[in-house]
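Incident log, structure service

09:12 report received: a user says their structure output differs between two submissions of the same chain.
09:20 pulled the input from the user's history:
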Amino acid sequence: MPDDNPPPDYEMLESFQQALGRESSHCEACGRVVDGNDIGDFNILLLDGNVFTVENHVVLCRDCEERDDWKEAVRKKRAAEQPQPPTSLRGKARNLPNTIHDYLTDPTARFLFARRLGVLALLLVGILLLLPPIAAVVGTLFVSPDTGMQWFDQSITAITAVRYTSISTLAWAFTGLFGIVYFTHIAERERNDPTGWAGEWNPPKWYALAVYTAIGLYGAVMLILVAVGDAPAGRQFGAGILWFVGSLGIAYQIKDALRLDLVRMVWEPRRELWEFPTRYGFVLALTAVAVGPPASLPMFTTPLLTALTPTVSTAYIIARLPHDRVFRDKCIDAQDRLLEIFRIRDNDDN
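09:34 re-ran on a clean worker, output below:
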């Protein structure tokens, strides 16, 4: 049977029926036909723990269910059933569009965002390199050869002008483009990723998140106080270190905290609405610290941006606490113990 803590929208019976239909009521480990109408003849297990997709459900006969190597057998069978890529040069060339599409759109691929960012950078460089000859050809064909050469020279001048653009402008332009691409990426991953994830031993991730939040928030507040003159300037370096460590920990921990809360049905937050501002806020603050705020904004914008990531993380912790029955029960127990201690002291004083 599936592992404990399925997501709130998990329909077990429907998933079982879809898995049986997918395999035509055959055991995936040995190929034996199982009786889809008699649960005593088969079992359905998860290939990877706590991933509640239909594809992750495995149909097994009762004999293979007891095998220690049934997962290896299923993975080997599924790998053999996958369509094999062509080996000839003509086949590879014909299959190249599909290969590129799979490389850029596989929602379960590791480092998918890095792939897309790299491809986008290559496309932008390619467009810049191809712009002069394209301008020359268009001008020559549709106006005159002299216009084509003129447009070629103008495009070269426009491209080389990028060298004289300030580092601050380039950094903020890249940061803005990064934000657009990253938000699109997170929204897509939420649609395609499993609802949540939990291993065999996973303590609440929000405990570590709360520690990082306290560190990052203290550092950000100190940076703001230094900026307004209410704290000595000598504290700026130490405050910056605390902010960086705390915010980096938040950016790393927020995803695991969200997924674990979802799989344990603590509450149902929208992942991209919490994950994006915490992580992208860290990028915005790093850009401001490195090159200063955009030219149209005051310098005080930088310490304000440092407070963005720990503030959103604090809001996440506060928002989830009313839904966390375990934490609420612990608080009630601690309150009862504290009242009992006071009661004992009052009795001793009397």
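09:41 both user submissions now match this output. Likely a transient worker issue. Closing.
09:42 reviewer note: The chain has three domains: 12-81, 89-164, 167-334. The first strand starts at residue 42 and ends at 46.
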